[in-house]
Protein: ABC transporter ATP-binding protein
Organism: Neoroseomonas eburnea
Amino acid sequence: MPGAGVPVLSLDAVSIRYRGGDGSLVNALEDVTLRLVAGEMLGIFGPSGCGKTTLLMAAGLLEIPTEGTVRFSGTQADTMAGEAALRDFRRRHIGFVFQKPNLVPFLTAVENVALAMVIDGVPAGEAEQRAMGLLAALDIAHRAGNRPAGLSGGEQQRVAVARALANDPVLLLADEPTAALDSRRGRQVMELLLGIARRRLAAVAVVTHDPRSIDLFDRMIEMEDGRIVNESRAAAA
Ligand SMILES: Nc1ncnc2c1ncn2[C@@H]1O[C@H](COP(=O)(O)OP(=O)(O)O)[C@@H](O)[C@H]1O
Ligand SMILES: [Mg+2]
C-alpha cells in the first residue's frame, strides 16, 4: 500500500471526441492534464454536459483517449496497453460508484458485495467474510441480510460503496454518488468517501453538484466545455 501523497494516476493532455448522432464531432474532453495521489479526495464540478463523466471514464480506463495518455504509476497499465490488460487492471484496482446503487435485486447486501469477488474466483465463504468486513467498516453490517428493496436509498449507496471497495482499489471514482440522497445521507456518503481516501489511502475522485460538501475535498476542479477551467485547494490541508 503506497503512502499518502504517492502518485497514483496521471492523465496527460487527454482529449476524447465522440461522434454525435448527426455525424458531428463532440469534444467531450479537451486537453486535460490531471494527477491524482494516494489519500486525497478530489471534487469535480461543472455544468451538465461539460465532460465530468467522460473524465471519470478516462481515469477508470473505460474510455480510451482520442489523444493523450492515462497512466497508473508504477504499473504497466496505461492506455497503450491492450483491451484485455486494461480490463484486468480495472477489475483488480479501480472501484466505481454511480448515482444509482445498481444492486442486484434478488441478492442480499452481503451477497451483492461478495458477488464480484466470487466471480473473480474467491471461494464463497471467504468472499462473504470479506464482504461482511466491508459492510461493517461502512456501518451497515446490521443490514447485511436485507435485499435492496429492504434498504433505504442511503443504505443502498453504502452497500454500493462497499462493493466498490471489494478489490481494495487504488483509485475510487464516484459519479454524482449523492444525487439521489437527501442532504444528511448525502453528507454521510461523502464523509465515507473521504474516510476511504484517508484510511485506505486510495485516490478518490468524486463528481458532484452538491456545494454542501465542498469542505470535504482536498482539491477541486471545475470543468467547462471539456476543459479544466479552474483548480483550487482546500485552505486547511
Ligand atoms: N457515448 C457518447 N457519444 C456521443 N457523445 C457523448 C457520449 N458520451 C458523452 N457525450 C457527449 O460528451 C459531452 C460530455 O458528456 P459527459 O461527460 O457525460 O458530461 P457530464 O458528465 O459533465 O454531464 C456531452 O456533450 C455529451 O453529450
Ligand atoms: Mg455525468
Summary: The beta strands are 7-19, 25-37, 41-45, 67-72, 94-97, 171-175, 203-207, 219-224, 227-233.
